[in-house]
Design a protein that fits this description.
The complex is a heterotrimer of chains A (416), B (294) and C (335).
Chain A (H helix, E strand, L loop, with lengths): L1 H23 L17 E7 L6 H20 L8 E7 L4 H13 L5 E3 L4 H12 L5 E3 L5 H5 L5 E3 L9 H9 L8 E7 L7 H11 L3 E8 L7 H10 L3 E5 L3 H13 L6 E4 L7 H7 L1 H4 L3 E4 L8 H14 L8 H20 L4 H8 L5 E3 L2 E3 L13 E6 L2 E6 L19
Parallel strand pairs in A: 1-2, 1-3, 3-4, 4-5, 6-7, 6-8, 8-9
Antiparallel strand pairs in A: 10-13, 11-12, 13-14
Helix pairs in contact in A: 2-13, 3-4, 6-7, 8-9, 9-10, 13-14
Chain B lengths: L2 H32 L6 H19 L3 H22 L9 H24 L14 E4 L2 E4 H23 L1 H11 L1 H6 L4 H26 L7 H15 L4 H21 L2 H18 L14
Antiparallel strand pairs in B: 1-2
Helix pairs in contact in B: 1-5, 1-6, 1-8, 1-9, 1-10, 2-3, 2-4, 2-8, 2-9, 3-8, 5-6, 5-8, 6-8, 9-10, 10-11
Chain C lengths: L1 H21 L3 H27 L7 H17 L12 H19 L4 H21 L9 E2 L11 H23 L2 H11 L1 H6 L4 H27 L1 E2 L1 H4 L2 H15 L4 H20 L3 H18 L4 H15 L18
Antiparallel strand pairs in C: 1-2
Helix pairs in contact in C: 2-6, 2-9, 2-11, 2-12, 3-4, 3-9, 4-9, 6-9, 7-9, 11-12
Chain lengths: 416, 294, 335
């Protein structure tokens, strides 16, 4: 009736308006101007998971960013400008991440952006900031899918994940026949972080004659790990490789193994044991003894910058070197990379920073050397394997590395 | 895959499933008597778990002993919530409104729990949590046996209450037909309040067992509530026996599939079975067939 | 009265159209895009669930189907990274409708409360399948071409596309409601058996309504996929989405036209804004939940019905010999 006609007419008007707008839309090509007025602070924005699924890691990252900012400010900031961090929460949601980075750049007018936590969030975030020409240096998006997107503005300071288990696999393969395990079980969560690591390790280990007696994946959202862990225990392999993303998963498997009176000779998990006190509090120090995890950094690293950072962390938050979460170092390294880039380019121009970081230059950080390839991967840090021995978190692989401690093998029995 | 693994998974399923049944019973009771779908049931389970955690870590009280405190506490919480919020829900769209209100309540509780306890996962510890006993060639963890025992005791108590007491009779009357019950002189309002309180109190026990067997934080409630909802519908909404059977069935099927085919297929298979069962028998296994759906 | 209402609708539309031109800050247009997508999905959801009384808690099945359709097409047809991708958005809606047919055929055989749960179960079947099958990319999800047109107005085409979806969903709702088909849906809600007895082909009507409601939601999913550039199974098949859509429609007013629009507008934009402002993630949950609770308890039938009753009570009190409308019976009556 009358109402409908009015509505349709307004639609026509709208359509014409839309078309007109499209054609006259102008772009002002906003990108960071590169220069900051004297006396003004440099604003760095990041979206972190401060609640939701990734919150424990998100908070560790926050500490890392803040520690770096405080240290750098003590040295006079970046090119004389005080660093001010603007960190917002994305509740571990990709929808929120997109809005957050847009807000940071357009509303808060940050000069630089740091990455979020987790490969799942890094990709949408990187795309959102790429449109503004911003660089995204991050330390937690290392899954192959992040680099397959071939974005030019992503730089992952931490080691890409796929080869994390290689030192461990090589160690197993190199054991003398008498000591080498006869059987091995692989069980992993269906996650882009864990899944790619397992086949790489299996290939090396199988070639050394170790039989795979169990290889199954479990859903990432599983809440009840008992039947899965029981099945692994029933397979009675001498070594267990667990593809986990967090402490609760590892803790559940360990508890189920203990209940089943099953103690493998070696037990490595892709994530969890590297979370310092969060891990030992959840499982107990006695049980943690002998647990292994791959990573490119640990609290006892002999790297000078790392030692300094660890000392400051302990001063501020307490605990021991072994208790420092690797996320803190990864976040800190992000800050160091930006420091190097800003110093080298003499300003805050993101385009220049991106070019500089792609130029093949080698930088130093708490993680060791950093050099980015065309995809933004940093392949320089060695993948290490770490192990809890008593209350200490030590490096055990590669065995040829000067910093390596003798590996504790076979793993001691479960102890509450 | 061998026979003992399958049998082991069945035993695991029965033991774990009974705990889920315990949690689901509260939910189905509440729905049956009050026409309220309490989607906050999941967060109440977590609340119970956190209460047990606080008692255990800060006051050194054993988990099972602590139930003497957590169960009455959650009963009171339930009564207050019902009186202040839920009794205000009236009208033809009561069921739908109850989803909204209880969802809002669950958000508030989740936020408060996050602020008080932080988002870091915690787990309940006790000396018996990691120990197990050897039975017929498989190890059965103490905690699951104790949990099963607790579920049996509480469900048994619930049964006695429902079928042997006068109050229980008024609950069953309200379950069958609210209007008729009111006509016969039953104070449906009070019955509802107490039922809600009982439904929540029972989750305190479920929460303790859940917290001892899983690392949890406030956001674990989402997984929980979707499972609990599915259990009560499969069992038949309003049927307590149905909740028990369905709870055990669900976990057992998942555990068996996990062993036979692989863990990624366990949830999928279960949901497919659920769809099939509901297509054939829409009221669930033990639900009443409605004559008229108004 | 009716003319005033139409003018108000028009004004609202004009305001929405002008919004990105006046507010160029991409933060707000970004929030606007997500809000509009939710508005379209909530309206579409209400078109079936609100009118028929069958509360569907698995609409993410449509959303995810639309998203995966466009992602798979983009990858297999090597669609270039420009506006061409937008032509496929309606295709996402179409595929969602095709998916809705067998799903609805199974789900609609059961009644009310069982229906709610069976939609949840079917949703999980879809989510778990997307995670476990390799052609959907598994847990790594699927990627879409990186679109890089002019930066300051990057959000704008998405905004207008989302607005288009909202307008489409609203018009479809209006058309359904004013048709005989709509009356049949309402009859099913009031008393399904009696409706069947009166000659309504109940199953066919329900299935048609269910399928129609899938279209806009599928388009919403497809648009989201292009905007985000990357989809993961747990985010496009998201149980929170299922609940949110239903809540927004109920919050605004189940069965009304304005209700879902208003509900989505308020809830989604508030949620995104609160998350940015109160970065301590959990505080926003408490605020959001408390606000929600207060509104729901004082306006139990949704904002729209409450406001309408307030207004009509006021109006009728100032007319001679007018009867006061009883709030309980006016719930969900077509406005």
């Amino acid at each position: 009736m009358i109402g409908k006609r009015k509505l349709f007419r307004s639609l026509g008007v709208t359509a014409v308006a839309m078309a007109t707008l499209f054609t006259i839309a102008t772009s002002s090509g906003a990108s960071s101007s590169g220069t900051i007025a004297k006396g003004q602070p440099v604003l760095i924005g990041a979206s972190l998971s401060l609640s939701g699924d990734f919150s424990a890691d998100g908070q560790a990252f926050q500490r890392g960013y803040e520690l770096w900012a405080a240290d750098q400010n003590a040295k006079g900031g970046l090119l004389g400008h005080k660093i001010v961090l603007k960190i917002v929460s994305d509740a571990s949601s990709p929808t929120q991440v997109i809005t957050n980075y847009q807000a940071l750049i357009s509303s808060d007018h940050v000069n630089l952006t740091f990455g979020p936590f987790s490969s799942l969030l890094t990709l949408p975030a990187a795309k959102a900031v790429a449109r503004y020409g911003y660089a995204m240096v991050e330390g937690a998006g290392g899954a192959p899918s992040v680099f397959q997107a071939k974005l030019t503005n992503v730089f992952d300071a931490a080691l890409p994940v796929a080869n994390g288990l290689v030192p461990f696999a090589k160690w197993i393969a190199a054991l003398p026949k008498a000591q080498r395990p006869k059987s091995i079980a692989y069980v992993t969560s269906t996650d882009p972080f864990t899944e790619p690591q397992i086949p790489v390790a299996e290939k090396i280990i199988k070639a050394a004659g170790v039989k795979t007696v169990y290889y199954k994946t479990f859903p990432a959202e599983a809440t009840d790990y008992t039947p899965i862990a029981d099945a692994v225990a029933a397979a009675n392999a001498q070594v267990v490789v667990l593809g986990s993303v967090d402490v609760p998963t590892v803790s559940a498997f360990m508890q189920a193994f203990e209940q089943a009176h099953y103690n493998p000779k070696a037990f490595i998990a892709t994530a969890g044991p590297d979370q310092g006190t969060t891990f030992t509090k959840a499982v107990g120090l006695g049980n943690a003894n002998g647990m292994m995890v791959p990573n490119a950094w640990f609290g006892g690293s002999k790297n000078a910058a790392s030692e300094k950072m660890v000392a400051e962390y302990i001063k501020k938050y307490g605990g021991t070197a072994s208790g420092v979460n690797a996320d803190v170092a990864e976040a800190y390294a992000v800050g160091q990379v930006i420091t190097a880039a800003v110093k080298a380019t003499g300003g805050f121009d993101n385009a220049k920073i991106i070019t500089y970081l792609h130029s093949g230059v080698t930088m130093q950080s708490v993680l060791g050397s950093v050099k980015f390839n065309a995809l933004g991967e940093n392949n320089l840090p060695t993948a290490f394997t770490f192990q809890w021995q008593g209350s200490k978190f030590v490096e055990v692989n590669p065995t040829t590395d000067p910093g390596a401690t003798k590996i504790l093998y076979p793993k001691p029995a479960w102890k509450n | 895959m061998n026979g003992t693994a399958v049998i082991h998974s069945v035993i695991d399923g029965v033991l774990t499933g009974s705990v889920y049944a315990l949690m689901a019973t509260g939910l189905t009771l509440i729905f049956g008597v009050m026409d309220i779908i309490n989607v906050a049931q999941g967060i109440f389970v977590i609340l119970g778990a956190y209460l047990s955690y606080t008692l255990s870590v800060h006051l050194g009280i054993d988990l099972f002993v602590g139930l003497a405190i957590t169960i009455p506490t959650l009963f009171l919480v339930g009564v207050v919530v019902e009186r202040v919020f839920l009794s205000r829900i009236k009208g033809p769209e009561k069921v739908v409104m109850s989803i909204l209100v209880t969802y809002a309540i669950s958000l508030v509780i989740e936020g408060i729990l996050n602020m008080v306890f932080t988002v870091n996962d915690v787990e309940l510890h006790a000396w018996y949590v990691s120990r197990s006993v050897l039975v017929f060639g498989t190890y059965l963890p103490y905690i699951y046996l104790l949990g099963f025992g607790l579920a049996v005791v509480l469900l048994g108590a619930l049964y006695v209450m429902l079928y042997r007491t006068r109050f229980g009779a008024s609950v069953r009357a309200s379950l069958a037909d609210q209007a008729a019950a009111a006509l016969v002189g039953i104070n449906v309002k009070n019955v509802s309040t107490i039922c809600f309180g009982i439904g929540i109190a029972v989750t305190a026990a479920g929460g303790m067992i859940y917290g001892a067997t899983n690392a949890f934080n406030a956001s674990s409630s989402y997984d929980l509530i979707s499972r609990l909802l599915v259990i009560i519908v499969l069992g038949g909404m309003g049927s307590i026996g149905g909740a028990l059977v369905a709870g055990i069935m669900m976990i057992t099927i998942e555990d068996m599939v996990s062993v036979i085919w692989g863990p990624v297929w366990s949830s999928l298979t279960f949901f497919l079975i659920l769809v099939i069962v509901l297509s054939i028998r829409p009221q669930g296994l033990f639900g009443k067939q409605s004559v008229r759906m108004a | 009265m009716s003319r005033l209402k139409n003018v108000l609708w028009l004004l609202a539309l004009v305001a929405l159209v002008l919004f990105p031109l006046l507010e160029t800050n991409p933060t707000y247009t970004s929030i606007g895009i997500f809000t509009l997508i939710f508005m379209g999905c909530a309206t579409s959801w209400n078109m079936f669930s609100g009118y028929s009384g069958y509360v569907n808690l698995g609409s993410a099945v449509f959303y995810g189907s639309g998203a995966y359709t466009i992602a798979l097409l983009a990858n297999h047809l090597h669609v270039p990274a420009n506006g061409d991708l937008f032509w496929f958005v309606p295709l996402g809606g179409l595929v969602a409708m095709i998916v809705a047919i067998p799903v609805g055929a199974i789900a609609l055989r059961v009644r009310r409360h069982t229906f709610v749960v069976i939609t949840i179960a079917i949703f999980f079947v879809f989510q778990l399948s997307a995670i476990n099958f390799s052609f959907t990319g598994g847990t790594s999800g699927l990627e879409l071409p990186y679109i890089s047109w002019f930066v300051t107005n990057f959000n704008t085409p998405f905004y207008y596309m989302a607005l288009g979806i909202v307008v489409f969903a609203t018009l479809l709702s209006v058309a359904v409601r004013r048709s005989r088909f709509g009356l049949q849906l309402l009859a099913i809600r009031d008393d399904e058996d009696r409706a069947a007895g009166l000659g309504v082909k109940v199953f066919a009507v329900k299935l048609t309504g269910y399928t129609l409601s899938a279209f806009a939601v599928g388009m919403g999913g497809a648009l989201y996929a292009i905007f985000a550039g990357q989809i993961y199974p747990q985010f496009v098949f998201d149980p929170i989405f299922d609940i949110s859509i239903a809540l927004m429609a109920i919050f605004g007013g189940l069965g009304t036209l304005l209700g879902p629009l208003l509900g989505a507008l308020i809830l989604e934009s508030m949620q995104q804004y609160l998350t940015i402002r109160f970065s301590n993630g959990s505080l926003y949950l408490v605020i959001f939940g408390a606000l929600f609770l207060v509104v729901v308890l004082f306006m139990p039938q949704g904002i729209v019905v409450y406001a309408r009753d307030l207004f009509s009570n006021y109006a009728s009190r100032h007319e001679e010999g007018a009867m006061v409308v009883d709030p309980a019976t006016s719930a969900g009556t077509p406005s």
